[in-house]
Amino acid sequence: MIESVDVNVKMHAAQSMGTQKDEQDRMLPGKWYERDGVQIVKYRDNESDTVDTLEISSRRVRLKRSGAIRSEMEFAAGESHIFEMETDPGTFSFLVRTARVAVGIYGDRLTVELAYDLYADGSLLSHNHVGYDISYA
Questions:
Q1: Residue 78, SS3 per DSSP
Q2: 110 beta partners
Q3: pLDDT tens digit sequence for 34-75
Q4: Are 75 and 63 in contact (CB under 8 A)?
Q5: What are phi and psi for residue 81, nearest 5 degrees?
Q6: pTM: predicted TM-score of the whole model, two decimal places
Q7: 74-90 pLDDT per residue, tens
Q8: Interior CA angle at 82 toward 78 and 24, to 5°?
Q9: 3-state helix, strand, coil in the chain (%, to 5)
Q10: How far apart (Å, rounded) are the C-alpha atoms in residues 45 and 106?
Q11: Which residues pair with 81 in a beta bridge?
């Protein structure tokens, strides 16, 4: 895939913090293309006022956010990565510990599943599960 194609990005996110649980579902328009064997999906998240770019390979996913929130998170099963999140109030450091990355490419459809824990200052903030179902528009 050289040129970008219009896609629908269906996202389901679940986050648990102790006994509290939050779930969100979104459907967003985006673009999908391939560069050097990496699947790239770019979409605008109006709720957080960001442009998000997913860089997806078979075992690793990178999420870059620009706009009101600026960050670059990396997910690889069994690995931990530190990232900074820049917002108007300031810059905050987090650690993401990834338990699972699952990627499926089915012609005109791409699925991504991420399961990870998020830490700040050495303390667990949340358990997270994010699923993307990306298909031609």
A1: coil
A2: 105, 134
A3: 999 999 999 999 888 999 999 999 999 999 999 999 999 999
A4: yes
A5: -140, 140
A6: 0.94
A7: 999 999 999 999 999 99
A8: 75
A9: 0, 80, 20
A10: 24
A11: 96
Identify the CA nearest to 16 among candidates 101, 130, 122. Answer: 130
Question: Which tokens is 42 given?
Answer: 């770019």
Residue written as tokens 């998000």?
A: 52
Tokens, residue 89: 């109030």
Q: Which long-range contacts (CB under 8 A, 24 or more apart) does 47-54 make?
A: 54/112, 54/132
Residue 21 burial (CB count, 10 A): 11
Question: Which stretches of 36-108 are assigned E, i.e. beta strand?
Answer: 38-45, 50-56, 60-67, 70-76, 80-87, 90-105
Phi, psi of 74 (to 5 degrees): -125, 135
The contacts of residue 93 (CB under 8 Å, 6+ apart) are 82, 83, 84, 85, 120
Q: Are 83 and 94 in contact (CB under 8 A)?
A: yes
